[in-house]
Amino acid sequence: MSQIPLPPLPTITRLASVTVVRHGESEANVRYRRAVETGDVSVPEGRAEDAGLTRLGEEQAAAFGRWSAGVGDGPELVVCSPYARARRTWEIAAGEYGGRGVPPVVVEERVRDRENGVFAMHSPPAWRAADPEEWARRERSEEWTYRPPGGESLADVALRVRGLLGDLDAVAAGRRVLIVAHDAVALAVAYVLEGLGAPLPDRPQVANASVSTWHNEGGRLVPGVWNSTGHL
Fold first, then answer.
1. Are the C-beta atoms of 72 and 104 separated by less than 8 Å?
2. β-pair type (176-181, 17-22)
3. pTM score, two decimals?
């Protein structure tokens, strides 16, 4: 018997709004682009979570802060990734609030970046050189479900983001929430809020310091803007 598929069943929520901003341009973003352009297979030392902002990234964070401080219905709670680039983005943005009260912030590990496991800090050329077989498996796999050894798939990120949004619905009902995080988190929020049975995201990469918003209409969060950089 044929069945007519239902449209996505919307996520019911008591949050007033959710805004996601990706961190400003980071040193890791610059290294990644250069490696792709040049084929550099070197792997920098250190941890992915410690990468800081570039000068441009700091300017982007300040521009976002000025925009956020000027919005009449600005955030009432900030949820920030523990990664240095996200924390620095909010630190700079909060400094632009001036005399206006800065909303409280909680650092939450569930909005950390997608983890690449043993290939953390590897650009595509470095990954391909280090393990050609694993790189080939990645190329054959669906991006949403591919999980590197010791790392996460985008579906894994969505699972932890779903749990966080459920917790926020319980403890921050009626409040406007700002999430300062990463491109994978923005994609996951969009997917979760679209509801049960939502198609997998098919969106361009989320730009540095871009803003995506959802606001409450009748108990569900509906999209406002996606990947907006007009404030920059």
1. no
2. parallel
3. 0.94
Q: Which amino acid is at 145?
A: T
Euclidean distance between CA atoms 56 and 26, whole angstroms: 9
**Number of other residues whose CB lies within 10 A of the CB of residue 203:** 13
Q: Residues with Cβ < 8 Å from 210, sequence gap 6 or more?
A: 21, 22, 186, 227, 228, 229
Q: Which residues partner with 105 through β-bridges?
A: 78
Confidence of residue 139 (pLDDT cuts 50, 70, 90): very high
Contacts of 194 (CB under 8 A, 6+ apart): 8, 10, 11
C-alpha to C-alpha distance for 96 and 41, rounded to whole angstroms:
39
- Phi/psi of residue 105, each to 5°? -125, 140
- pLDDT, one tens digit per residue, over 36-84 is 999 999 999 999 999 999 999 999 999 999 999 988 888 999 999 999 9
Tell me, what's the pLDDT at 1?
45
CA 104 to chain centre: 19
* Residue among 215, 198, 213, 214 nearest 10 (CA): 198
Residue type present at position 120: A
- The answer to whether 176 and 74 have CB atoms below 8 angstroms apart is yes
Statement: residue 2 has pLDDT above 70:
no
Distances (CA, A) of 214 to 11, 16, 97, 177, 199: 12, 9, 22, 10, 18
